[in-house]
Amino acid sequence: MAKVNEKEKDKKALIILPILLGAGAVWLFLRRKVADPDKAILFGKVTDAGTLAGIQGINVACDGYTGKTNTGGDYQIINIPPGTYSVTFTDPLGRYEPQGV
Predict the structure, then answer these.
(1) Domain residues of the chain, as ranges?
(2) What pTM was estimated for this model as a whole?
(3) pLDDT digits (tens, 9 = 90+) for 80-91
């Protein structure tokens, strides 16, 4: 009798796993950021001048459009209308001086 219960558990797990994976894929698809083809993407990497290591958590502001660096120091701001902008980098933790370009 115990073997039947184990087989039933295995069947349920095999059915539930694909459903969960499918739901996860749909969730990721819906969460992705889509760039407008008529707009620009600002991207780059913020690094420490001494070590050249990427810096996480730096705020990037581009005249009202904002982003934040990831664990590797990379950032991306999408759907910016074409034009000329000022970009400012600030560290909310105060480790680095604000920089602008």
Answers:
(1) 1-32, 40-100
(2) 0.64
(3) 998 899 999 999
